[in-house]
Amino acid sequence: MNTSELLNIRLYNQLLLNHEIKEPCDIVSWMGAMQAQALDLAKWAIGARLENRNVKDIDKALNAGKIIRTHILRPTWHFVSAEDIHWMFDLSNPRLKPIYRSYAKTFGADESLIYRAVPVLERVLMGGKHLTKQEIGDALHEQDIILDDGHLQLTLSYAEMEGILINGRLKGNKQTFTLFEEWVARRKTLSKEEALECLARRFFTSHGPATIHDFVWWSGLTMTECRQAIEMIRTDFICETINGRDFWMRNDTKTPPADENYALLLPPFDEFVVSYKNRSEIIEDTHYGKVMTKNGLFSPTIILNGEIIGSWKKVTQKGSPRIELSFFEKTPKRKQDLFKSEIKRLEHFYSI
Fold first, then answer.
1. Residue 95 parent element (H or E)
2. Residue 174: enclosing H or E segment and its boundaries?
3. Which of 12, 46, 28, 24 is nearest to 252 (CA)?
4. Which of 77, 215, 237, 257 is deepest in the core (most CB within 10 A)?
5. Span 65-109, pLDDT tens digits
6. Element (H, E) at 302
7. Rounded to an integer, what distance in angstroms lies between the CA atom of residue 215 and that of residue 74?
C-alpha cells in the first residue's frame, strides 16, 4: 500500500466519501468521538460527513441530547453520542482528574473554594435546568459563592470531572451546562476491558489505517492499555507496514476508487487531521506551521485527495456566509474549480 492508497482509505473510513449514514448522531457514534473546539465550526465536522444538512440539524441533535459536547479522552472538547458517553467517561476520567488538578495548581486556585462550590452548583442545576456559564456564576453568587472567572471555569471543570455536570442545550450561540445524569440516562455499563476493546474497535474502524501511536494520542490512554486493546481486536484487523510504520485497519476494509479527485473543506480540529500523532502523510513539513501551531491550534483546511494544500475562512457578506480559500502555492484554476461544489455545500450549511 502506498501513501495515496492509505489516504483514500482514511477518507472512506472517516465518512468523507460516499456512505449510507444519514443522521448526525450516527456520524458521531461511528467516529467514536470528534474533537469539538470552536463550536460553530466544529458543527461542520459533522455536516461535512452528511448530505443536504445545515447547521440547524446539528443544533437539533445537540438540543435533543443525542450528541453530547464535553471534555473526554485527552482533556479537550469532543462530540460523543449519548449512547457512548457513560462508558467512555468511565474509561477516560481517571486520567483526566490529575490533569484538571494540575491546571488548578498552575492557576494557583483555591481548591477548597472549588469543592465548596461544586455541591451548590449541583443544587442550582437540579430539576432539568440548562444554564450558561454566566447564569451559573450569578446563581452561585446568590448563594454567597463568589467566584472570579478563573475559579468559575475551574468549578465547572471539576464538576464535569466528577461526573456531575455536562453540556446541555444551546441558548443562541452559547453552550449551557446541565446535570449529567438528568440529561443523559445511562444506557450501558462496560468493564474497563470491554471499554478498551470497544474504543479500539471504534477508532481503528473509523480512523484506520492508523498506528498504535495515533491511538495513544487520540485516546489519552497509556501505551500499555492501547497494546492490550489492540490484542483484543486483532482477529478482525490487519497490520501493514507503510512508510516504515505499522498501520492497523479492519481486515475487510474497502479501497475506494483512486481515479477520482476528492476535494474537501474541513473545519479546524477535524478528525481527519487532528487524530493522528504523525501527520507526514497529509501535509508537507514546509506548510505544517501554516495550519497547525506548536501550542495545538488548528486552522480550517483545504484537502485534495487527502493532502492539505491550503486553508479557508468563513466570512459574512450582506448577512450571508461566504467561504474564502487560501492555497499554500500558486494553484491552477482547474484545480481551484474542484472546490466549487464544496464551497457551495459549506455556504449552504451555514445559511439559515
1. helix 85-107
2. strand 174-179
3. 12
4. 215
5. 999 999 999 889 999 999 999 999 999 998 888 888 898 888 888
6. strand 301-304
7. 11
Whether cis (ω within 30° of 0) applies to the bond prior to 321 is no
Q: At what angle do helices 39-47 and 55-63 cross, to 10 degrees?
A: 100
The reported pLDDT for the residue numbered 297 is 85
CB contact set of 90 (below 8 Å; sequence gap of 6+): 189, 190, 192, 195
pTM score above 0.85:
yes
Q: Answer left, alpha or beta for residue 199, where phi above 0 means left and psi between -120 and 50 means alpha.
A: alpha
In terms of Cα–Cα distance, which of 167, 111, 117 is closest to 140?
117
Q: How far apart are alpha carbons 17 and 50 in whole angstroms?
A: 10
What does the pLDDT read at residue 109?
87
Q: Which grid coordinates belong to 317?
A: 457578506
Helix, strand, or coil here: 77? strand
Which among 198, 247, 222, 270 is positioned nearest to 29, based on CA atoms?
Answer: 198
Going by C-alpha positions, the residue among 14, 81, 2, 5 that lies closest to residue 48 is: 14
Question: Which amino acid belongs to residue 211?
Answer: T
Cell of 246: 505499522
Q: Which residue segments constitute the domains of the chain, with CATH numbers given?
A: 3-7+190-250 (1.10.10), 21-183 (1.10.10.10), 263-350 (no CATH)
Amino acid at 74: R
What would the pLDDT profile of 191-232 be if each residue is shown by its tens digit?
999 999 999 999 999 999 999 999 999 999 999 999 999 999
Please measure the distance between the N-terminal and C-terminal CA atoms of the chain and give it in whole angstroms.
43
